[in-house]
User: Fold LLM class F420-dependent oxidoreductase from Edaphosphingomonas fennica.
Amino acid sequence: MKFWQNLSWIETDQQIECARFAEEVGFDGVMHGDHFCFPDVIRSRYPMSPDGAAPMPTDWAYPDLWVTMAAQAAVTSRLRFAAAIYTMATRHPIVTAKATGTLALLSGNRAIVGVAPGWMKEEFDAAGIPFERRGARLDEAIRATRKLWGGGAIEHHGEFYDFGPVRLEPMPGYALPIYIGGSGEVAWKRAARLGDGWIGGGDAPEDVPELLATLKRLRAEAGRADQPFETILPLTRPASVDELKRLHAAGMDATVAYPFMLTIGPRSTIDEKKRAMDAFARDYIRAFA
Assistant:
């Protein structure tokens, strides 16, 4: 079982030290949220809450996640980094490939590109990109970005993107892992067809076995059952060590320590965050060591 710390929304000047300490106490990786921008007025329905209201205020911190990961990679050696979740469809594939390809080279391929179509129409409006058919746009962006990571003269001629031949040098020469997020059947099928893994949005422990079985079935139907696939599942309530061991046996590869915003509060010192990470490591990570 692997364990991740969600570092979304923390004070930006604490990001580097939090990553360094997370590696020290045994976390496998750290996660970062993303938005292209955060409009002041949001009418879109947030899919993860019962009333559709987004839980995050518009002034919560979203530093550029690729820049943040590069800074954290410079002070760590094995810690991995995951976008949870990058709204890839609001960016051009060339922009995504250049930033993430550079990060892969600087970090020793320790970054995971977690993507989903996005839920906030106002964010797409600000980017000048139609909100409609964002899922199909994302699928094409994934394919185009993977081509660009290969390096050399690349061209792509599709429904949403048309470019090339162009070069982005240097590129890693391999595809970074792309994990799919979201909710429901459409997202699960996208993960089965295109993903190297799944990043959940929050599941009850008792619901995890059925989700894992669904992903396994869909991957088999897509002819990809034999390919590597990692599942990182935040849980909606704390689970015991015994529960986690059962879920790991059922196929859950990793889970996530809650964001400090939800456990300590909107503002906390670096020492408070370190104590929280150390307590989680004591209660969970060391129990699996």
